[in-house]
Amino acid sequence: MMLTSNLHSTFYILHSTIMKSLQGIPAVGGVGIGPLVIYRRANLNGANAPFAAGKSESERLADAIVAASEELHALAARVRSEIGDEQAAIFAAQAMIAADPSLHDSAAQLIAGGSDAPSAIKAAGEEYAVLLAGLDDPYLSERAADVRDVAGRIERILRGQRENLPTLTQPAILLADDLTPSETATLDPKMVLGIGLAEGGLTSHVVVVARSKSIAVVVGLGQLPADEEASAILDGDGGRLILAPDAATLAAYQQRQQAAAATQQRQRGLREQPAVSRDGVRVRLVGNVGSVADAVGLAEYGAEGIGLLRTEFLFLEHEPTEDEQAAIYRKIFAAVPGEIVVRTMDLGGDKPPPYIDFGNEANPFLGWRGLRVGLERRDMLLTQLRAMLKAAAGRKLGIMFPMVSTVEEWQAALAMVKEAQQAVGKEQPSELQVGIMVEVPAAAMMADALAAECDFFSIGSNDLTQYVMAADRGNAHVASLYSAAQPAVLRMIARTVEAAHAAGKWVGICGEAGGDPQLTTLWLGLGIDELSMAAPRIPTVKEAILSHSAADCRELAAKALACATLADVMKLL
Ligand code: PEP
Ligand code: MG
Q1: Long-range contact pairs involving 346-354 (C-beta distance under 8 Å, separation at least 24)
Q2: What predicted TM-score, i.e. pTM, was given to this entire model?
Q3: Catalytic residue from among 104, 454, 510, 553
Q4: Rounded to an integer, what distance in angstroms lies between the CA atom of residue 301 and that of residue 289?
Q5: Which of 289, 437, 472, 519 to mutate to test the pocket of ligand 1 (most atoms within 8 A of CB)?
Q6: What does DSSP say about strands 20-23 and 240-243: parallel, antiparallel, or unpaired?
Q7: How confident is the model over 482-535, as pLDDT tens digits?
């Protein structure tokens, strides 16, 4: 029997009279096995005394907004110390939403029209959320959940209700229509075996926060089961929720869990071992980092340092000061003893901060982005360069620029590094390397001229692939073109490596392809010196390097470069 929900095109499959499964979208990998607890928000409203009873409804509203802002600031501070700055920024942003006069004004108008304060804030929040949800921009439309979260918090305060996630008394899989970011932040990873959401998007904050807590997540289940179950499986890799699994299914998943644990155990034994091929070629394995929490987590996976520190998270809400930036860089550098390469702000494209006017760009990825922004907003780039130089005082630092297209841009950027060095005086790194990301085909074609002047190259395969193939990295229609293993992309990469090595410079890959274990032999064969990736991918990539010889991989790479099609390359791999 198969019922299809037209809203989510989700399948509800009845395998037998007892075992059912719901298919959703895999969001955070891993397997959770245990009882199901279903969180139905409407059922959990245990009201206490109403907030600020005796005052007028508009006074109650104003007081509740202040109380909500205070709660959110406190939550941001707690999350900052327990999880990291990136996640804390969610609640700092929510505090700003709570203080937004337009939310207050529309609720006040409804009160003037006869509504009570809780209903008014609920309706005003909903109106604002619906407006955001209707926007084409997926980032903004997913912020509708934050607005509902904030309005719901104010409403709960007014009604005198507590935050009402169920308290888990034993480890369980938690199901809900959706979870607010603040609800997710309060979840205890020891008690939550997995999260299944009827709704939710892949870039929603629930997913971001759950990933940082290593909780498996499936989103878009479409519906929730009618009843809680004593036994279920949440498969974060396959995007499935299996209810009341039969003995054979349960055993199969338990085996998967055991195999994953055994792999982890084996890989933990390799943590301190460098990645050296069977014939002695060493590849540096380093981590991609986008928050303090990422940096803290690197050591666990044996990362030798940071190959790409994405700094945009500092610029999302407001323009950070030099001191604010230096404080965060110091925290990150302190957490990582090895090499560190920081990328200067890569703003624009799909990451336009709200306080810079990007105008109405028809093609933002081909527009004012990366270094192009920094060369015009010199004040911002110089501030960032000073902050990172100061924070790295006394240790080795690499700085690289995103989206470099010409030698002139590189030269202008290098001149700014020198200007920042003069400004900071004695507070300098003990050794400084300055390089570029090779992610625009023009830079790959001019790699010989650039290599003569840069200290290193880091290949941004995510963008290089999209620009070489003219295939938007986020567009599902062109996903079949978008592969770093396309022969055209491989030839660009080979050319870049040759130019770097001819000039005696090192070259790394820091795009997703660098951490794809299926492609590791190709990178080893092409002579890549460093692979930078999300830290959890390091152990598997290391095993691939340890088990191959570079000489064999060079033969493989030569064959791949001679391939006419992606299919031919994939056959080789
Ligand atoms: C890349 O383009 O490969 C890269 C690492 O940069 P980002 O993904 O941040 O654009
Ligand atoms: Mg890029």
Answers
A1: 346/310, 346/311, 346/312, 346/370, 346/402, 346/403, 347/312, 347/315, 347/373, 348/372, 348/373, 350/139, 350/474, 351/312, 353/315, 353/316, 353/317, 353/319, 354/317
A2: 0.69
A3: 510
A4: 13
A5: 437
A6: antiparallel
A7: 999 999 999 999 999 999 999 999 999 999 899 889 999 999 999 999 999 888
